[in-house]
Amino acid sequence: MMLSQLQELFQRIDKSKLFQSFVIAVIVVSALTVGAHTYSLHPTVEFALHWMDVGITVFFLIELIIRSVASKGLKAFFSKGWNIFDFIIVIGSLYPAAGSTIFIARLLRIFRVLRLVSMVPELRLLVNSLLKAIPQMGYIALLMFVIFYIYAATGSMLFSDINPVLWGDVSISMLTLFRIATFEDWTDVMYETMAVYKLSWIYYLTFIFLTAFVFLNMMVGAILEVMSEEHRNAREEQADVDSLPATQGQINELKAQIAELKTLLKPKSEVLIN
After folding, report:
1. In whole angstroms, what separates CA 224 from the centre of its chain?
2. What is d(CA 213, CA 75) in angstroms, rounded to the nearest whole number?
3. Do 66 and 13 fall within a single domain?
4. What global pTM score does this model have?
5. Do both 13 and 113 map to the same domain?
6. What's the pLDDT at 40?
7. CA angle at residue 97 from 91 to 100, to 5 degrees?
8. What is the DSSP letter of 245?
9. Do 27 and 94 have their domain in common?
10. Which residues of the chain have pLDDT under 50?
11. CB contact at 8 A, 177 and 151
């Protein structure tokens, strides 16, 4: 009975908007403390930052315990990928920041900023969408690599005599094409080859059209498609949660509120009768 009451208390704390906002604020402060260590600070400030870091680590550990108890057992807690992610980040931040291990400890503490993703539902949705879109993006990237390779081989055969630094072989040509795709002084490269091959602009414009417009939009489209599906699934899950029957704890709370209302209304009804 005591355990169930404790679990209900932790569930209310975990679902509290105030508690979640406070956790987000602590994550932001944690990020600022990590950044502060990169500056030359007064020993007093360093000492304060050290104990602040210890306090943040302890808070994250307590918050993780609250969330694990609020879940329906450890199996249910670790069944969610974001909980495993938080567990690894928090346990990793317990690594002692002293001696020769100080670099590793600070590196692990940097990753605590990523907990912001797990705490904000909108960021979780974005990351989930990005991860689920990776297979589709992989096929698009493979097709893009094929186009890169074809254009690189063609460019190496045509322009290697003009500028061997940029077009000497296929690998260097692919780096040059990446520069063109990112619009980094690509006109200088084009005008250099146009001095010998006047129609070489067709080579550059078709490549830019395929990479910067077609494939880029295909990448964006794949991500947006998955995002819309994730939004739809989130709305359906929320609708299912809202339609669930009340738990025993909620029923007991409603009964207590009704009993309290009855006790408040009883004196008023007696006054009216008299």
Report:
1. 16
2. 46
3. yes
4. 0.64
5. yes
6. 84
7. 120
8. P
9. yes
10. none
11. yes
Pair 215, 202 in one domain: yes
pLDDT of residue 3: 63
Identify the pLDDT of residue 171.
92
In degrees and rounded to multiples of 5, residue 39 shows phi and psi of -100, 160
57 Cβ partners below 8 Å, 6+ apart? 90, 93, 94
Q: What is the number of domains present in the chain?
A: 2
Q: Which domain holds residue 23?
A: 2-119
**Helical (H) or strand (E) element with 231:** helix 216-242
What pLDDT score was predicted for residue 144? 93
Identify the DSSP state of 108. Answer: H
Q: What is the pLDDT of residue 200?
A: 92
Can you tell me the distance from the alpha carbon of 211 to that of 3, in angstroms, rounded to the nearest whole number? 59
CATH number at residue 192: 1.10.287.70
Q: Establish if 77 belongs to a structural domain.
A: yes
Residue 199 belongs to a domain: yes
Tokens of 35: 């950044």
Predicted pLDDT of residue 142: 94
Q: What is the CA radius of gyration of the chain?
A: 30
User: What token pair was written down for 167?
Assistant: 């077009």
The structure tokens 């502060």 sit at 36
Residues in the chain: 274
pLDDT at residue number 31: 85
pLDDT at 205: 94
